[in-house]
Structures are given as C-alpha cells and as structure tokens.
Amino acid sequence: MVRAAVLPAVGSPLEIADIDLPEPGPGQVRVKLAAAGVCHSDLSLTNGTMRVPVPAVLGHEGAGTVVSVGEGVTHVAPGAGVVLNWAPSCGHCHACSLGEVWLCANALAGAGDVYAKRASDGSDLHPGLNVAAFAEETVVAANTVLPVPDGVPLTDAALLGCAVLTGYGAIHHSARVREGETVAVYGVGGVGLATVQAARIAGASKIIAVDVSPEKEGLARSAGATDYVVASENTAREIRALTGKQGVDVAVECVGRAVTIRTAWESTRRGGRTTVVGIGGKDQQVTFNALELFHWGRTLSGCVYGNSDPAEDLPVLAEHIRAGRLDLSALVTERISLDGIPAAFDNMVAGKGGRALVVF
Predict the structure, then answer these.
(1) For residue range 204-260, what is the model confidence (pLDDT) as tens digits?
(2) How far is CA 84 from CA 37, 60, 134, 173, in A?
(3) Is 208 strand, coil or helix?
(4) Closest CA to 267 of 292, 245, 297, 288
C-alpha cells in the first residue's frame, strides 16, 4: 500500500488514503515519487473547471525513481530518475502528424483508465491527468516517463513536468520572444515565475510582472522581472507608461480569467502578441469588437503545455539549469507533505506564494 491524495468527487475535499497499486503490466512503469508540484490545474480538477473521471489520484507534475518496469519497456530501467510527462503524444493523430504534439488528441486517454484500488473498500481509482503524482508511488504508461537530464536534482526535476515546460514554451515557442523585446507576465505563481525566467533567458529588455499581491514583488524580481505592477483597473495604462506609451511586445497571461486576458490584450502594443497560458472556466467570456481587432493588429493565441515537445525541450532546459540561467528552486515557496496539499490549494485561491512542492 502507498499513501495518496484522492479526489472522491468533483467539489469534494481531497482525502489522504492508502491505495493498492498493481505491479506494472506490459508497457508500464512503477515510479517512487521524489517530489510533486501543486499546480493550479490540480485545483481546476477539484472544482470542475477541468474534468477527468473520478474518484482519482491527482498530481501531474512530478519526478521520481523507477522501481520496476513491465514487459517491453526498454528506455528506462529500475533505479533511473524520471520526469513524468502528463500529456504524452500518441504519434499518429492529426496533430502529431503535423508535429504539434502538445495538441495530441489522445494525450489524456489514460486518465480514464482504472490504475489502482482504494485499500479501504477496493473501489476503483483513476490516474488524474495520467500520472497520479500525489502519491508515494505510481504506475504509469511507459510513454509518460522521460529520463531526468544529467545535472538536475531529482526533487527539483518535478517542476520540469509542467510549470517550467509551460512557462519556457510560452516564451520560446508560442510568443517567440526575441532579444530586446518587452514582455509583461500576468500572474506570478509557479508558471508565471518560470515565464519570467524564460523571458530573461530570451534576452527581453524589460520584463513587467503583474499580480494582485504586492508581496510577490521580491519573487518576481528575483526571477528576472525589471518592473512590478500590482493589478488594478489601471494596469494596462501603467504598462503603457512603462513602455513609452506603446505597450509591450508580448503579454503572457498565466491566470485564466476574462478580465486578466482582456487587460493583457490591452497592454500589448499595436502589432504585438498576447499569449494565454491560464486555464479558465467556460463562464469566463472575453469580448472584442471587430474594429479593434483590425486597428490594433495584435495576435491573440492560446498556449497548451507551452506548445512544447518534452522529449526535445528537456535537454535544452537542462543545459540552462547547468549553466545557471534557470533556477528551479526559485519557483518553490514552500515544501510540504501530502497532508499539506489542501492548504496549498487555499494559498493558490488567495494568491499567495509561488509553487508548493510535495516532497516525499
């Protein structure tokens, strides 16, 4: 038996419970978790903004050590450190055939599987977003594990599984920030802090971090922000004032709220790019009129998982880490146990801190 954080139903609080894991079958890997990040997407699963079969063990940003492998698994072996990839590409759907693996139609197919049993009553459990990282151990499909790059501490490597790939990809793949451009990042949580670091790595001349919390200014500046704006109804005006009344070349929205998306759009210069990373609910309606779309000539784009290919991007990120350009530990503002996840959710709702990291 292993301990895990179980979501019994949408809208219900997480329960820390013992679960029974099977041995890995063909094409599967059993992993002992070293750490798992608490991401806003996990919170979105608890409240129904995103939907997966329940009851489920949540957690999709994690890293650990391979315990055992099933028949046919050859790319990892027991004892290897691995990063969990919650959205593995199938390689044969239309998106994958176009090289857009982050849009794979079958990426979340495994979330509907039964992967474990609750020890108390034998009831079925689903693996959250494929990997069920909020547990001491998990059993996953082989295509969801990638070797931890050399020189990356195993605990810190958990952050590569979502926050860092998303933030780095938003800057380098979606917005394609060029050296000397100006960038605004809305939301200074785990993904936002990774986005700020990625903008610094890209050579942005001005990086404006925006958040509702004044207390996050130190975090943002440590990550590379040159300016900090406390969110208000005047945010877009303040950002234009900081950029010669032009607006930023690129705005990245990491919150997923209609008002923040609209503000990010309004703070982008004419002809600039606005990238939406945050996951909002269906009730978050953003409106534009036809004339402004023509006049401003801005590009508005969504961004899924940083538009990243983890297999290709992890080695690049590892090189930035080894060179000291990317600091994973700077994203983490608290290290907790499984029992601390509900409080970490409360902090996210309250807009406090960066990434909470469950350390096993």
Answers:
(1) 999 999 999 999 999 999 999 999 999 999 999 999 999 999 999 999 999 999 999
(2) 11, 7, 12, 21
(3) strand
(4) 245
Distance CA 99, CA 101 (A): 6
Enumerate residues 6+ apart whose C-beta is below 8 A from 211: 186, 187, 188, 192, 220, 228, 230, 231, 351
- Record the pTM: 0.96
Contact (Cβ atoms closer than 8 angstroms) between residue 23 and residue 67 = no
Instruction: Report residues of the chain scoring pLDDT below 50.
Output: none
Q: How far is 229 from 348, CA to CA, in rounded Å?
A: 19
Which amino acid appears at position 321 of this protein?
A: I
Does residue 150 contact residue 34 with C-beta atoms inside 8 Å?
no
- The count of C-alpha atoms lying within 13 angstroms of the C-alpha of 160, restricted to the half-sphere facing its C-beta, is 33
Question: For position 48, what pLDDT does the model report?
Answer: 87
Q: CA-to-CA distance for 24 and 26, rounded, in angstroms?
A: 7
Are the C-beta atoms of residues 307 and 102 closer than 8 Å to each other?
yes
The three-class DSSP label of residue 47 is helix
d(CA 329, CA 269): 33
Whose tokens are 């691995």? That residue is 82
- Taking the CB of residue 315, how many other CB atoms lie within 10 A of it? 12
pLDDT at 159: 97
Q: Note the pLDDT of residue 51.
A: 85
- Phi, psi values for residue 326, rounded to 5°: -120, 120
Q: Classify 247 in phi/psi space as left (phi over 0), alpha (psi -120 to 50) or beta.
A: left
Q: Which two tokens stand for residue 220?
A: 């943002």
Alpha-carbon span 349 to 47, nearest angstrom: 12
CA 202/CA 289 separation, integer angstroms: 33
* Partners of 318 in beta bridges: none
Helices and strands of the chain, counted as H and E runs: 11, 18
Amino acid at 230: V
